[in-house]
Amino acid sequence: MLPESAELSEAVDHIWNALLQHLQKDRKIQARAYLLPARPLRVEEGRVLVLGYPKGYATHMEQIVSHPHKQVVQKYLERLTRRKLDIKVEVLNNDGNSGANGGGQGDELHPLVKAAITILDGKVI
Asked: Distance between CA atoms of 79 and 81, rounded to whole angstroms?
């Protein structure tokens, strides 16, 4: 991760609650609802915010990267960070942490989760 990305990741961590509050205040309830189980993991290359979701939230992951929810979140993120960020999603491992590799868990995933990961271009970490 570039130093700039590390600083941006820290900034996103700090504004996460403000983002959720702004979405609620402006009645962007669906976008907010799809973000509630997520947590910001990192910013890649200074332009891609990676959100981590616990297992079982495939619908939330699918919806947050689809139009119009993705555009709403990007607009609010840009207001708060003054940066245009794309959004990518990943499934968190069992202990809620993100790691560099999946640890061979692919064989243990439910077929629907596998399909969601494929559709969303996500990965289990």
From this structure: 6
**CA atoms within 13 Å, Cβ hemisphere of 40:** 24
CATH number at residue 56: 3.30.300.180
Q: What is the count of structural domains for the chain?
A: 1
The reply to whether omega before 68 is within 30° of 0 (cis) is yes
Global confidence as pTM: 0.70
pLDDT, tens only, 46-97: 899 999 999 999 999 999 999 899 999 999 999 998 989 999 999 998 655 5
